[in-house]
Write a structure and sequence with these properties.
The structure holds 2 protein chains of 2 kinds. By secondary structure, chain A is of the alpha/beta class. Chain A is built from 4 helices and 7 strands; from the N terminus they run βββαββαβαβα. Chain B has a 5-stranded antiparallel beta sheet with strand order 1-2-3-5-4, with helices on one face.
Chain lengths: 114, 146
């Protein structure tokens, strides 16, 4: 699972460099998220800008990742393509996650508050 | 030349084979003139239905075959999935409401989204067990706009 992490404006940005988060990679995604975020602090932005397809297993894996981060580390989602956004909307998981158009949008929001 | 309007093929009941099957059907939809939006929606439904066959009917054994038939009509995309795995329990087809999202973080559901997506994205859904074969027929409307 190609995923990488960078730090910007107090956020840990995790980029998913794959075009699918589906049943075939759901466990690998969860493991990689844990490896990248373990032992750190602060909010996390999951950059889904490269992901054009997600199924219910992939969605479940993102929910699991949010639980793993715990209450003190908020998980933001950014860059959802239309077909991915639709899955969040139809399952009402768009009510659970903070969803932004772009990663820059999250950082700017933070800058405004600072 | 008239573009192909129907496709039919078989593959193994594994996650990787499902990925390849979806890719093949996407290519067929493109050739048949299905819009990206409609194809995106149809792929989600088909993926959920096929994942269920792999995970539940064949219990993730990787053994077993799946037959897929798809026909593109002017108003809708019809799909039929046949497999010889275990039967689908009736409660699966009960009408789904969305999960309760107003719960503490640790109580959020990590599954159970699949049939909800299938129900919400199809205009027709019918399941029949004939002998030892599961037959799931469903259709997705064309002309969606997001």
């Amino acid at each position: 699972m190609q995923m990488s992490s960078t730090d910007r404006g107090g956020y840990q940005i995790v980029l998913v460099d794959e075009n699918r988060i589906d049943a075939a990679v759901a466990i690998a995604f969860k493991d990689r998220m844990r490896n990248l975020t373990e032992g750190r602090a602060g909010p996390v932005v999951l950059d889904l800008g490269a992901v054009s397809f997600i199924d219910s297993s992939g969605l479940g894996a993102i929910v699991a990742a949010m639980k793993q981060l715990g209450k003190d580390r908020q998980l933001h989602l950014a860059g959802l393509m239309p077909n991915v956004a639709k899955v969040f909307r139809l399952t009402r998981m768009d009510m659970v996650f903070t969803i932004h158009d772009t990663v820059d949008g999250v950082i700017d929001l933070h800058a405004d508050r600072a | 030349m008239t573009p192909p309007q129907a496709i039919e093929f078989q593959f193994d009941a594994s996650e990787q084979a499902v990925r390849r099957a979806l890719s093949r059907v996407r290519q067929f939809w493109q050739q048949a003139g299905v819009s990206d939006c409609d194809a995106g929606q149809a792929e989600i439904v088909l993926a959920e239905a096929l994942n269920n066959v792999v995970e539940h009917a064949y219990c993730n054994t990787g053994a077993g075959r799946i037959e897929l038939r798809c026909r593109v009509g002017s108003d809708q995309i019809d799909m039929t999935i046949l497999d010889q795995g275990g039967p689908v329990p009736a409660h699966v087809f009960a009408q789904r409401t969305g999960p309760d999202t107003d719960v503490p973080l640790n109580d959020l559901p990590e599954g159970g989204f699949g049939w909800m997506l299938i129900q919400k994205m199809t205009c027709y859904l019918h399941y029949q067990r004939v002998g030892g074969t599961n037959c799931l027929c469903f259709a997705v409307l064309r002309g969606g706009n997001g």
